[in-house]
Design goal:
Helices cover about 40% and strands about 20% of the residues. It has 14 helices and 17 strands. The structure holds pyridoxal-5'-phosphate. The site of pyridoxal-5'-phosphate has 15 residues, from helix 5.
Length: about 400
């Protein structure tokens, strides 16, 4: 067990890890040191969107690494330009007559949100305006760097790191009254997750979103969607906002976009994007050719029929879970596509994860209580059946 010991000794204690050393993976399965097989419904926290070690990524990595791995953004590179164009086209696939969306590339979700915060403030400095305040919501999660952390409306993540960056206001999610009251002449932007994933898989009410959009439009306030977890096919559409039909000024993406390689993207409408000028924001690694080429492959896989299959599998998974509800004290099942949260009446929800591991199933908890299911997007129907059986065995054990 020297891996456990070395990890404890040489690595910061910031992660609570399950007692498993993963050495390899293929498709929807991971394997530990002893060769035990696990069905993976965590997928690197909604990151390995095409499963583990898919051939398409293996090939892209191999061929791109022979050509060019990194140059910095001092030069033009082909994969970055092609990826930005493909992402921009995705917005127009959803709606033809929308303005052009441009991309800024970075390396994580937090960084994409940092960029969005900077852009929102800079945009509002235009015309000498004094708007700087950004509204976010309780139970949101936007990342761990100072700007993104300040945007995160959960006190437990702020504790010990105060003071936070000034200029953030947190409001109750899906509460129109408090939203209307909170808007003032300093409001620069509203930043939200359409599904609060880390916060327990809480879906935004369409009426609430419509109201926000109307107010933002009227008052000239920027609307920012953090689609770091919901984006890139996770909910059965390329962008989750397509389900709601309300497009924002700024979108942030990360997790699933490069199938397991680190990449973040901030996309913004041209008129907004153009206020960040040369030298005002940068990332050394951002959009490097290796990662950009892989992301381009991931994005190309996600055509209409792929996205349709994500939707169908999500419905199938919800149906399977609903059938378990007849026999087990499941309080709630909610989600979109393959981002699903399940609440179980149980005093010790954490025991579910440990029992599931014993049954060869990897699942995790968010918000300390909700089982969050985010399998690879190309999971098969028979793997979903396998999940349902293993999950039922797990419930039997923990509810005994
Ligand atoms: C994971 C996540 C982040 C943070 O992404 P990192 O890559 O860990 O910095 C931000 N927003 C949302 C919605 C997330 O799910």
């Amino acid at each position: 067990m020297s891996i456990y010991k070395d990890t404890e000794k040489y690595i910061f204690k910031t992660y609570k890890r399950y007692p498993l050393t993963i050495v390899s993976g293929k498709g929807a399965y991971l394997y530990d040191e002893a060769g035990n097989k696990y069905l993976d419904f965590i997928a690197g926290i909604a990151v390995c969107s095409l499963g583990h070690c898919p051939e398409i990524i293996e090939r892209a990595l191999l061929s791109q690494s022979k050509k060019l791995i990194h140059t910095s953004n001092l030069f033009y590179t082909i994969p970055q330009a092609e990826l930005a164009k493909a992402l921009s086209k995705r917005v127009n696939t959803y709606k033809k007559d929308l303005p052009l969306y441009k991309s800024f590339f970075c390396n994580s979700g937090a960084e994409a949100n940092e960029a969005a915060i900077k852009l929102a403030r800079k945009f509002n400095r235009k015309n000498g305006s004094n708007r700087f305040e950004i509204i976010t919501f309780f139970n949101s999660f936007h990342g761990r760097t100072y700007g993104a952390l300040s945007a995160t409306g959960q006190e437990k993540f702020h504790k010990g790191f105060e003071p936070m960056l000034p200029g953030f206001k947190y409001l109750p999610f899906n509460d129109m009254k408090s939203f209307k009251k909170a808007i003032n002449k300093h409001t620069a932007a509203v930043m939200l997750e359409l599904i609060q994933a880390e916060g327990g898989v809480n879906i935004i009410d369409k009426d609430f979103l419509l109201e926000i959009k109307d107010i933002c439009e009227k008052e000239g306030i920027l609307l920012i969607y953090d689609e770091v977890q919901t984006g890139v096919g996770r909910t059965g559409k390329f962008f989750c906002f397509e389900h709601f039909g309300i497009e924002p000024h700024i979108i942030t993406l990360a997790k699933g976009i490069a199938g397991g390689l680190p990449m973040g993207v901030m996309m913004a409408r041209e008129e907004v994007a153009n206020v960040l000028e040369q030298g005002e924001h940068a990332s050394t690694f951002g959009g490097n050719p290796l990662v950009a080429q892989v992301a381009l492959e991931v994005v190309s896989v996600m055509n209409k029929s792929f996205l349709k299959s994500v939707e169908k599998k999500g419905q199938y998974l919800i149906k399977s879970l609903t059938s378990l509800k007849e026999r087990y004290p499941i309080k709630s099942i909610r989600g979109m596509g393959l981002l699903i949260g399940v609440d179980i009446e149980n005093n010790e929800p954490t025991s579910i994860v440990g029992e599931a591991i014993k049954k060869g199933l990897l699942i995790n908890l968010t918000a300390g209580k909700t089982v969050r299911l985010v399998p690879p997007l190309n999971v098969s129907f028979s793997e979903i059946d396998e999940f349902t059986n293993k999950f039922e065995d797990t419930l039997k054990e923990v509810l005994k």
